Amino acid sequence: MRVRSVLVAVGVLLMGYAVVGGSADPDLKPAGVLLFLAGVLAGHDLVWMVVLLTGGAAVARCVPGRHRPVARAAAISAAALTVVAVPLVLGFGRPPDNPSVLPLPYGRNLAAVLLLVAGAALAAGLAADRRGRPAAGRGRGRSTAGRKRSERPGGGGPPPAGR
Amino acid sequence: MRAGAFPSRLRSTRLTSQLGVALGVAFAVCFLTGLLSHLIQDPPGWFWWPARPVGLYRFTQGLHVATGLATVPLLGAKLWSAYPHLFAWPPVRSVAHALERASVGVLVAAALFQVVGGVLNVSRWYAPMPFFFTAGHYWVAWLAVGALLVHIGVHLPTVRGALARPAAGPPPGRLSRRGLLGGVVAAAGLITLTTVGQTVRPLSGLAVLAPRRPDVGPQGLPVNKTADNAGVRARALDPSYRLAVVGPAGRADLDLAALHAFAQHTADLPIACVEGWSATGRWTGVRLRDLVALVGGDPDRAEVLVESLEAAGRYRASTVAPAHARDPLTLIALRLDGEPLHPDHGYPARLIAPNRPGVLQTKWVARITVREPR
């Protein structure tokens, strides 16, 4: 309890320091910061999450059950890569007089990386089909606690117990 | 919100805890390396930063940006796993609960602010951010870390319990928790692989999504601020250019011929940008300590103010602390790879010192003021 109280107290102090220090910093426009804080929060919770959940539901509907784990893993990579690359693809930060900033064809590069991710997912799915078994979730027990490590299937298994 | 509105059985306290621990580590790395960068750029009296190892700042700032970029899938997965809590009913059970929810709101907003703002900053897209990025990123970092400590304090027993409990296996056809964590790790790995080559030279060929390439720019080196953007091109190319060196014994006005008449030294030093890219150049020029001695300063103890031809701007001048001013690798460089500096690299003369952020490596140097040790 003592540790928790200290954590909460120090955390509140640091938040207070941020508010006081930020308000006193002549370089900072607090209204702009508040606007961006609210903007990213609303953008994430109201827009991005809706897109993500819709995408997840589409994977659940369109992809056969045994291929869903691979499809979901690929979708996570695709979504994260897209978030990082979209500002580069749009290229609004590229100044006309400085060709060393954003020098690459990012739209083409992002498409190539996403194709690679999709290709890897497809290959993993086909390999699973060829083996004639689902890629993951092969009717395991609910707990690994009673099993020796060597008996557990490799990759895709549940995390080891009792960490 | 009705039961079953969020059908994924992947979500669990255990998954949220595991993601939270990983995210906590990533935030700690970003906070410490970011704080360090802030202290180096704006050092308080008690702060001391060495000139060696030469590439230490290159490493810490490269790590800052690489970790921040790799945090994108981690933060995304963490917020996804905790999203149903947003719709908890009743929304507020007590004053303490209301405060705890408010602190989570601050944490989520601050975490998104840092990660999204960082991604926009490295792509130099400032229009969506209605504030000065550096100051906003700095103060919101304190806000994020404070809210994170409160969050850890509140949820510590839950996290400990969830991580100690045996995990349930996934139902057939569903991604296991390990599968989801593996997906997040793979996403972070892909982001790192396609961007980190902007500072790790051997991986530059893979850096297809990096905002910079270490070999792209005038004289094979990237540029942050061009001569035109700084408004100095005409004055930099003016043959009447003189470098004013001012110290305890007086003042010297040196033209390019006079600068070339000094003993010339060559150093392989990186430009290490706060934006996370870095590139090494082979610089040749006059040792700063030789110029300090020229005007009667003590080369081993002096602090030096280096000013640019720029009329204004946040980075038009930088202070070189004694540790860097006395270092034999610290040069007023006149050449890059044996050629006169390109105007965008600071022609006619620029400062280059080991283990410093790129914004402090003042270009188009017009004046050097040697200050007596305090």
TrEMBL record, chain A:
The chain crosses the membrane at residues 34-58, 70-90, 110-128. Residues 129-163 are annotated as: Disordered. Keywords: Membrane, Transmembrane, Transmembrane helix. This is Uncharacterized protein. Residues 139-150 have a biased composition (Basic residues). The lineage of its organism: Bacteria, Bacillati, Actinomycetota, Actinomycetes, Micromonosporales.
Automatic annotation (TrEMBL), chain B:
Keywords: Membrane, Transmembrane, Transmembrane helix. This is Sulfoxide reductase catalytic subunit YedY. It comes from Micromonospora haikouensis. The chain crosses the membrane at residues 21-41, 61-83, 104-127, 139-159, 180-200. InterPro entries: OxRdtase_Mopterin-bd_dom, OxRdtase_Mopterin-bd_sf. SUPFAM superfamilies: Oxidoreductase molybdopterin-binding domain. The keyword Transmembrane helix applies. Residues 240-372 form the Oxidoreductase molybdopterin-binding domain.
